[in-house]
Amino acid sequence: MAKYRVIAATGCPTGIAHTYMAQEALEEAAKKRGVSIKVETHGQSGVEHAFTKDEIAQADGVIIAADKDVNIDRFDGKRMINVSVTKGMKEPDELIEKILNDKNVPVYHSSGSTNASSTEEAELTGSFWHKMYVYLMNGVSHMLPLVVAGGVLTAVSFFWGINSADPKSAEYNALAALLNTIGGFAMNLMVPVLCAYIAEAIGKRTGLVIGFVTGMIAYTNGTGFLGGIVGGFLAGYIAVLLAKLFKKLPKSLDGLKSIFIFPVLGVLISGSIMWYMSVPMKDLNQGMMSFLKSMENTSPILLGLIVGIMCASDMGGPINKAAYLTGTALLAQGNYFFMAGVSAACIAPPLATGFAVLFNKKAYTAKERSAGYVNFLLGSTHITEGAIPFAAKNPLLNIPTFMIGSSIAAILSYVTRISVPAPHGGFIVLPLVNKPFLWVLWIVIGALVSGFLLSIIAGRQSKHDTVVMTTTAGNVTVDTISNSEDDSKKDTHDNNDLGKILNKDNIELDVEANSRDELLQYLADFSKKLGYATDSKSVYEKYLAREAESSTGMEKGIAIPHAQDKTIKGSAMLIVKLAQPIKWKTFDNQPVDIIISFLIPDEDKGNDHLEYLSSTSKLLMHSEFVDSLRKAKTKDEILRLFQA
Questions:
Q1: DSSP labels for 511-560?
Q2: How far apart are CA 249 and CA 253, in angstroms?
Q3: Which pLDDT tens digit goes with each residue over 516-563?
Q4: What is the pTM of this model?
Q5: Cβ-contact 446, 452 below 8 angstroms
Q6: Residue after which a domain boundary falls, among 432, 465, 498
Q7: CA angle, corner 339, sides to 334 and 341, nearest 5?
Q8: Percent of the chain scored above 90 by pLDDT?
Q9: Is 572 found in the same domain as 430?
Q10: 12 an active-site residue?
Q11: Residue 95 sits in which domain range?
């Protein structure tokens, strides 16, 4: 049986996209380091790649990147990092690095205590608010399939007419009535299931039992999903309280506790509290729903703006889910207008990424272009998460851009009184929409606006920005430039192309230099000596100007200074190994003794030298290459490394 150094569990409320994006990110981060990892996914289809007891026992550490319950009690006694699924997607390198090398990562104990040495480390095992969110999302993830199934079946029943399920109506149809009834049963389970699985995440099996009953009371008394949420936390913590109160009972009575004492007392206590809480909660729920309904008529523009901002702010996260849950709750009450704006706002962002890569292909990498094209499909089926990588690339500009398109789509949907009776499905449920072509038009308009703005932002970024891409593989950080070049060339670029700009004469060993500036002067003089430049002073000034923008010092004693100037006649790569390391501003605050420099002619607008930088970056991402470069004693050895 294979042994995994790191095991990780990922899960998101919907179990559609975040779960698997975090899985891929963590696997890629581990692969860079040559670290074995197994990722257990908690998706909509259930648990996949489940851990065995031996795999858990043999692992050096556990990463939980989930916004739902993944049964962490089984990891008792293991070093654990517990974060949101979003961090698993966005910070996989940091998480892998921390679980492998940070001795302060706390050991998890199922009793809830840890040996964390600081507040920061304690937060790694799950802050209070993160735990609350995980509990809530456990309920949401179990509830969503019921809502979707029930909502779609109910919506399909309207094919025969809005009153087709009513035996007294002339539109009555037996099949429609059956579909409506079955869909209604599924929708009616929304609150009890939400309540039960929030409680289950807190109080395990006992919480589940108490939660179902508490949820039924909340549903019957008309408290809506607000009652389901409050009831879930109530039931869950009552289950925990009962476990503590009866902790000292003899172990021989464990069976009696689980099947008699806890369920009976828990249902009685939680049910009674919820019964009396139902009156104010019902009024609160009805007041909120009435307010939203009134906004549909009196302030559709404001409502669309709010919904658009909420849905695009975190794309599948808690704010997005708040809008979606409100829409499903209104669907259950027969309001199909609110969901039209929510769905439009959720569909627009992924479509916008597809339009963005069409508008400005050169501003995106080949991988990003492929993702954008795939997002046409994802967006059409109401899966917003495909837009997350684009949002994460430049969140301060891209997220507001997504909000603009989502708000436009939502506002137009509300203004034109479009109704969508299904809670999910995207364009698949178009036959159920009252104005299908108009609805699609509004969504496309919103997506086009966002897409156009995204393409402008990406284009400017690719032309003017220098991006520092940090790769922690082998503790090497590589400096490269944004990807405005044709990535079809870049992706197929072979390291042998470095032979065009590197030869043995371009390599110097045991060079004496006492400072960074002295070394840069040496490189400028070296470039003129080799015939690559005509004015060493001008090249030296360009080296200094580049360092003034941001240091080209990397890690593990490597720096990659580069100069672009009109006096440089052709692209060249220079490699210098110093006799003694010199001070340089680096990411690990260590001195530099290996310099890889690039000379760039002024007429090169980005296509050629970026390919060379890319090839070099790929080599430096491998710790074994860096070790070999450091051990190389001759020019021939160094040359072979870069031409291999």
A1: E--SSHHHHHHHHHHHHHHTTSBS-HHHHHHHHHHHHHHS--B-STTEE-
A2: 7
A3: 999 999 999 999 999 899 999 999 999 998 888 778 887 788 888 888
A4: 0.54
A5: no
A6: 465
A7: 140
A8: 30
A9: no
A10: yes
A11: 6-110
